[in-house]
Amino acid sequence: xxxxxxxxxxxxxxxxxxxxxxxxxxxxxxxxxxxxxxxxxxxxxxxxxxxxxxxxxxxxxxxxxxxxxxxxxxxxxxxxxxxxxxxxxxxxxxxxxxxxxxxxxxxxxxxxxxxxxxxxxxxxxxxxxxxxxxxxxxxxxxxxxxxxxxxxxxxxxxxxxxxxxxxxxxxxxxxxxxxxxxxxxxxxxxxxxxxxxxxxxxxxxxxxxxxxxxxxxxxxxxxxxxxxxxx
Length: 231
Known about the structure:
The protein is mainly alpha-helical. Helices cover 63% and strands 0% of the residues. The protein has helices at 17-26, 40-47, 51-63, 69-80, 84-91, 99-109, 114-123, 129-138, 144-151, 159-170, 174-183, 190-200, 204-211, 217-230.
C-alpha cells in the first residue's frame, strides 16, 4: 500500500539513506529509524520482515522507469528473502539502468542457475552486459570461449573493455584479445588497446595500427607514442 500524500520518489542509480526514507514513506512505512549511514543490510534488518513493505518495494522497483531498478530487486532477493525466480523474471523485463549486472549477482549470490543467467544477460538491451559476462567468467560460472563469443555479439555498453578484462584476469591470449577488440563496432575500443599495451606488452605499433580510424583514435595514438618514448 502506498501513501497517496507522499509523491513517488524517482528511482536512483545508487540507492542511499535519503532515497530509503522517501521510499519507506511512500510505501506507508515509518522512515524515522533510518540513519544516514544505512545500507541495504540495515534496511533489511529494520524492514525485511514487513511483507507488505517488501512487496510494495518490489512493485515500486518493478515498475520504475528510471535509475537502476534491477539493483533494488536484486537487493530485495539477497537481503529480504524475495523469491529469486520472481526477482529474475522481473529483472529481465527492466529496460533502464544495468539489469545484466543484477542478473549476474542473482546467479553469484542468490543461487540463480548460471546458464539461465548467461542466456538472459546476452539478451539485455541496456547497460553493460559484456561486463557482466566477464564477471561470470571471473567467478568460474562461465567458460571463457563462450563468453568471448557472446561479447563479440553485443552491440551496447563496453565490450572492448570486457575483452581486455578477460585477458587481464581470465587468461585470454593477448593476440586473441587484440583480434577480438578490432571486431568491436560499439563504444570506443581505444582505451582497451592502450591497456593491452601498458599491461600486457602488446606492441605499440600494432596497437596504433588498430587504432587508426577508431573514435578519438588520434588522441590515443598520441598517448601511446608518448608512452613508447618513455619506455
